[in-house]
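ARCHIVE CARD
Drawer: 12
Card no.: 0347
Subject: one protein chain, sequence and derived structure
Cross-reference: see card 0346
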Amino acid sequence: MAETREARRYFVSGVVQGVGYRFFARDAAERLSIAGFVRNRYDSRVEVYAIGRPEQLGALRAVLARGPWAGRVERVEEEPAGVDPHYTEGFAIEEDA
C-alpha cells in the first residue's frame, strides 16, 4: 500500500527572521522525515513548504507555532499545496522570496 503524502504551505509571522527560524524549521522537518523547503519572505514572514503524511504535517505545524527560543511566533497560516516533485526528497533552506 502506497503511503499518502500531502503538501502544505505555512506562513509564519512574528519575530521569525534573524533568530535562526529557518534552521529551526529545517531541523524539525528533518526529525519528522518531511520533505520541502523553508525561506524568508520579503514581507517579514517565513514560508515553509512541507510534504509528508497528515500526522507528520500536524506535528510540524505544532513545532512551527512554538518556534525557536530567540523568536516569537504570532501566527501560522496554513494552506493546501500541490506536491512539487522537485521537493519530494530532503528539506532545504531556499533563497528569500
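Annotation on reverse: The longest strand covers residues 6-15. The radius of gyration is 12 Å.
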